[in-house]
Specification:
Layout: H1 2-9, E1 29-34, H2 38-50, E2 54-60, H3 64-74, E3 77-79, H4 81-86, E4 95-98, H5 105-114, E5 118-121, H6 129-142, E6 146-148, H7 156-167, E7 173-183, H8 184-187, H9 199-202, H10 206-222, E8 228-234, E9 246-252, E10 258-264, E11 266-277, E12 281-284, E13 296-300, E14 303-306, H11 314-327, H12 336-355, E15 359-360
Parallel strand pairs: 1-2, 1-4, 2-3, 4-5, 5-6, 7-10
Antiparallel strand pairs: 7-11, 8-9, 8-15, 9-10, 11-12, 12-13, 13-14
Helix pairs in contact: 1-7, 2-11, 5-6, 6-12, 7-10, 10-12
């Protein structure tokens, strides 16, 4: 077991998916960025630029001032959303990255699919399960590859956590705890007129915006899907009157493994994932935010080992993987069908919060 532990932590930030030489790439994947909010400007565009496999060539947003400013700053083509949807500049990009409010993903992804462009769509897929299914179908019917923006899956810390769980370093996994919280109206700006507070645009708030991170990361680490879920949502303050301010939920996995998760858009900043097994505890803390260095620790028989490793730009890793897989003509792991499992689980957690009963996700749920 000690050998397995050392082997999996050696060369911690290795890209175990990389087959192409980044230095040999002369024609990176050209990306049209749809949606120029703070995340796209501060993280996605720099991540695209840092990746050897991608480059941004087109940007669009409903805010014309933002389009002009970003286009000038990054020396790319700026267009109105209608121009991008019509394919007016389709010869300037190979793929489309969609980072708009949840309920607008479908229109842009459908347009990209009709143009034959590969898609990287932010999570969750859409504001509702029905629209999410239509989004995946649009790409499937057009025969274009769809990746969903689960940046945690390409983060080396998460990949090493998965390796250690698979290698049995934790022993038999017994339970998992995860938390993710922030003061949304402080950390993301104080403006109350934003899409996360509009249920029509977001589909929900704490659970949809934050809850998808622990949900998907735990699925990835365990390489399993929950069979039953339950949850509770709560709203205490007026800005969140139409959405969920806080949420807690339980994911029941095959083999009796339970994951207990809590998320909040109005609580002290926290970001932690802990996998407890019969032999060890594996801890990511901080875990989920792109703007924090990840921490990785293993606790075994009363001894804690904190792993010191070089941090990566999390969004660079995501776009590098996206571009690499397209150039190598290899499939994506976090594809549309994978993402639909999250949307079904989120939908079921909301149902549980409303009815007070747990919801089975499979016919043979325990």
């Amino acid at each position: 077991m000690e050998t397995a532990f050392a082997d999996y932590l050696d060369d911690f930030t290795r890209r175990d998916w990389e087959r192409l030489d980044p230095g040999a790439v002369t024609d990176p994947v050209r990306i049209a960025v749809v949606g120029l909010g703070w995340f796209a400007r501060e993280w996605a565009l720099p991540g695209i630029a840092r990746s050897a496999f991608t480059e941004a060539t087109v940007v669009t947003d409903v805010d014309t001032d933002a389009v002009e400013a970003v286009a000038a700053e990054h020396d790319v083509t700026g267009v109105a959303p209608g121009e991008l949807r019509s394919g007016a500049v389709a010869d300037e990009y190979d793929a489309v990255y969609v980072a708009t409010p949840n309920a607008t993903h479908l229109e842009y992804v459908t347009a990209a699919a009709e143009q034959g462009k590969a898609v990287l769509c932010e999570k969750p897929l859409e504001a509702t399960l029905d629209r999410s299914q239509r989004l995946v179908a649009a790409c499937r019917d057009a025969g274009v590859p769809l990746m969903v923006g689960y940046r945690m899956q390409t983060d080396p810390a998460v990949r090493r956590l998965r390796d250690l769980v698979e290698a049995g370093v934790a022993g038999d996994v017994t339970h998992i705890h995860a938390t993710m919280s922030q003061t949304m109206l402080g950390e993301l700006g104080s403006d109350h007129d934003q899409w996360r507070l509009d249920p029509e645009l977001s589909g929900g708030c704490a659970l949809m915006d934050l809850g998808v991170y622990p949900l998907n990361t735990i699925r990835f680490v365990l390489d399993a899907d929950p069979v039953r879920v339950s949850g509770r949502t709560r709203t205490d303050h007026e800005p969140f009157a139409e959405v969920d301010e806080h949420a807690t939920y339980r994911l029941a996995f095959p083999g009796g493994v339970d994951a207990m998760c809590s998320v909040s858009q109005n609580a002290q900043h926290a970001s932690r994932l802990e996998v407890t097994g019969t032999d060890a505890r594996l801890i990511l803390d901080p875990a989920f935010y792109e703007r924090e260095d990840r921490g990785f620790a293993v606790v075994r028989d009363g001894t804690r080992v904190d792993v010191d490793f070089d941090q990566v730009h999390q969004i660079e890793e995501e776009f590098a993987y996206f571009g690499h897989q397209l150039l190598a003509d290899e499939p994506f792991h976090p594809d549309g069908e994978h993402a639909l499992a999250d949307v079904r689980a989120l939908d079921a957690i909301y149902e549980s919060a409303e009815t007070g009963r747990s919801v089975a996700l499979t016919d043979d749920a325990e």
